[in-house]
Write the structure tokens for this entry.
Amino acid sequence: MSQARFASCIPLPIEHKALVNVIEKARDWGLMHGVAMRDKKHFNKDVIQVAPFVLLPSPFPKTEFEKAVELQPILNELMHKVAHNDEFLEHTLQNALQVDEFTKSLYDIWVKVRNEGITQPISLGMLRSDIMLESRCPHTENQCAKHTPYCSWKQVEINSIASGFGHLGPVSREIQSYILRQLGHPDLIKNMPENKALSGLCSGITDAYDLFGVPSAVILFVVEEVSYNICDQRFHEFEIAEKRPDIMIHRKTLNEIFEETTLNDKKQLILDGRPVAVVYYRSGYEPAQYPSQREWDARLRVERSTAIKCPSIQYQLAGTKKVQQALASPGVLEKFMGSGPSTSRVRDIFTGLYSLDFDENGERAVEMGLKDAEKFVLKPQREGGGHNVYGAEVREALQRMRHSRERAAYILMERILPPLVQGYVIRPGATMPPPVVDLVSELGIFGVIIGTSEKIFHNRQVGHMLRTKLADADEGGVAAGLGALDSPYLV
Ligand code: ADP
Ligand code: MG
Ligand code: MG
């Protein structure tokens, strides 16, 4: 059986001269509108280059897109409840903590601040639920009524920290609209859904700021030592600066936070003499971002403070792969959501997710993975791309870890096989014109939720982003250099 395929939005290939011409224009358009990143290989703070992008928007079924948009507030609320259920988080993460030092360090901060007493009951969740269409029909010979050429979408993961592309998502729609106009297809733009992710995410930050309610307070972005994805981050600042010129925004690394902030007697986080209302993490999700105890101390200080954190530490724990797997276990969703129609809608988006704990279920999952390694992805408790294990290596890893406690730090997930579409990927420095290649996409839906364990103040879906990669690539992170910016073309 050949893999399912969508037709591209216009017939390919594009005639050589027109193609070269439109790419040249689009690259300049991109550079001048922030479709750009810093170069990892030849880093120079003052230089940005165009980010990899797909020339034409990739087809995505309208009904599935709308389903994802509608479901987001339900997923937001689920994550909010999970983050506030101490017992569930403790129980779910218990085995992984024994072998995963990074998750353990986050967990220890959570325990410490809980024991000291919560100073800020409000959390700000800026979530991104990542999904892929599943082209493998569970029915014989792809004969189900729905199969055209997908069955439905499945969740890859949900991110609760540093969910990027609030700027790069919307601007991908703009660059592809420009390209379609240049190619003489302005009529197609209407099939690209509006995307207000940047203003939507920033409104989450400013709503939290207003709830904090101290007029002299500032906003703090926690950033890496070197930010490659600088346009995406800075546009959040520019957006807030434009809409709310009354608010001062700082960008600091964890190390700078260690050196430059204090807690006052009211547990306010003080920076430059002013209290911090909102801390927005664009760093702090992987071990390399905590090179010394200073960074961990800074994180603890922020968590102890009255600042509203995006995410607060329990939200970060709720975003782990282990929690995603536990939510897919029988009966667990019902505990959080009851047994109404929303629960079955959420259950429908889960693909096979298996624990590798040392129990009957874990043993069964190991057997399954050893038998059909190619059907699975092995995932540790990490974020930011590049940590998962695929294909034959799943078998090797399972063989190696079979009798080691290390395996409890991983989950086993069924591999999703999305439908293909042909297209052109434009990369900085690549030969021109690029070849027509087979691509697959991953859609991210953004959600904002603000509330306490008792009350939810805001809960909304705020936009989307699409990343596309070569069909035979395992991962598709754009910042990691594997994926390319894209936007959905609804069919
Ligand atoms: P991270 O938190 O590091 O982004 P992900 O779970 O999103 O981890 O995995 C990284 C990438 O690996 C995804 O963007 C996707 O391209 C690929 N991937 C992850 N899980 C699956 C899956 N079940 N099926 C197919 N591809 C997957
Ligand atoms: Mg992630
Ligand atoms: Mg991901």
